[in-house]
């Protein structure tokens, strides 16, 4: 059976991509690609366009920046401690003489990777559990009680236990950096899916009573394809909102963990660690906290705008207005 | 007489009511409570009744969109009353549905072409080009401009959306279509268009309709036979002309007397309007005996005790009322009108059909 809509179900863009594919093949006169419509609508959203530009800029900055910057983020230089901004050190240096610019770039890699991957994981879990709980009545009770249980768990002690239990085995298995990365992402992912699950469940419950779902059932569409074809595209908006908020939360949670000494080891710079290292010197060297803080804020803000624009662009009812 | 395409026997659809701390079942809403009817091939059966009497539930239950409580449904020789939803998939192409609210019955995020080709995706192995050709053919058939194929439902008017819904229902060449108040959400000029489209399609494709509506004049126009529902049961089922000329059940009489007359000066039933007192009893707690006994103008003692059987009183006419049951002192109605009421009568004229007076 040909079915263009088989997707993993976690990534909103994938869902829409497959769902938008059909019309190109069908339209009679000069079929416009659906993605062109999406792009046209996205372009009209000034904030989204600027947000996308800033976000891509930051991605490039942290991804390829370190190749062009000669200074090593972990190299100490005791003669250049606590310096202010200069051409040699655009963002100054810290109390061990490490170049903040290099550290912000290196930290951004880890922070953004953790943020994105943890967001995807929590989005996947949240959407999966929300859809299952909303669509299948028998699963609703158990899954929502599980969600309540996770919400009721004190997150920090749970993370503590997770880190203590799995840090060594994971570091041994994947190497220290990847091991901690996997641990961080999983820990953040499995402790932050609950809001998404609740929102998605609520929307699915409402959608399930709509007549087009009944129409799909009267056609004989099996539940799995009702979910991928009719449910997911229609719960896209709340998922997008959760996604944009999720990245911010993930970056901040990672910072908290690093601050508590549970995250990456101290010599691995992340934005959160840079921020918290700088907090104790806030009065003498305020700029040292401003730079990583600025980066986190910019990333979160730009993603929020991009998410907003994408949500509008992907909704055919708003598009073209 | 053609064979029945759809046979429904003693169909019951009860929705459980849960309440209390433990969510125990404390009762059931008897939305459909023992309904039996046949629909012959190529015929239109009108199903009328007031809001909440179980018309839509009945239509959906016949298509097995619900897991029915009891009874049997045979469509095209296949008993589907108790099949599970998975094995029903193979029967679905013979039976389709047109929905009441054309806005709500179309997925707002799918283009028209995707909506119409969904049944093809599910049940055929057509290639993309074949599907596209079929979609365009269907759009043409229901009177939609094929250049609209890549538009979204919100870009259409109500009547056009309903045409999309009809095209989707036709995609798999069904034999039987349940029209669940397909015109209720449309304004009058569009109603006529959509009904005429349904009639044309019926003539062209030999479709069989279960036409659910609360619009009595529209049902008079499109239906061959009419079933009147009250509180989950069929009160009366008769060929259209007989029913409108001489309604037997007191409820049908009251219902028909409420149909507005286009020209009150010419109508000869001035002042004969039967006004029912009181409210419809709750389907969760129907009265003992006849469901209509609380409001019936001709109520007898027996009505409050014994539920009347759904009996054939003259050939082709079924009534559930003690007034026509000799056992309880009722009289068989004299046979008037329709010399051969059993056969489906050919429809004549197009909407709006003029009413010829002739109420009781």
From TrEMBL, chain A:
Main location: membrane
Transmembrane segment boundaries: 48-69, 110-136, 148-166, 172-193, 231-252, 289-307
Cellular component aspect of the GO annotation: plasma membrane
Similarity-based family: Belongs to the binding-protein-dependent transport system permease family.
Organism: Jannaschia aquimarina
Residues of the ABC transmembrane type-1 domain: 108-307
Protein name: OppC_2 protein
Topology versus the membrane: Multi-pass membrane protein
Region named Disordered: 1-23
Subcellular location: Cell membrane
Record keyword Nuclease present: no
Keyword terms: Cell membrane, Membrane, Transmembrane, Transmembrane helix, Transport
Compositional bias ranges of the Polar residues kind: 1-19
GO biological process, one term: transmembrane transport
Domain of life, source organism: Bacteria
Gene3D superfamilies: MetI-like
Organism phylogeny: Bacteria, Pseudomonadati, Pseudomonadota, Alphaproteobacteria, Rhodobacterales
TrEMBL record, chain B:
Entry superkingdom: Bacteria
Subcellular location(s) of the protein: Cell inner membrane
GO cellular-component term (any): plasma membrane
Gene3D superfamilies the UniProt entry points to: P-loop containing nucleotide triphosphate hydrolases
One Pfam family here: oligo_HPY
Regions of compositional bias (Polar residues) in chain numbering: 333-360
MF term (GO), any: ATP hydrolysis activity
InterPro entries per UniProt: AAA+_ATPase, ABC_transp_ATP-bind, ABC_transporter-like_ATP-bd, ABC_transporter-like_CS, Oligopep_ABC_C, P-loop_NTPase
Ranges for domain ABC transporter: 6-256
Family affiliation: Belongs to the ABC transporter superfamily.
Name assigned to this protein: OppF_2 protein
Organism for this UniProt entry: Jannaschia aquimarina
Name of the gene this protein is made from: oppF_2
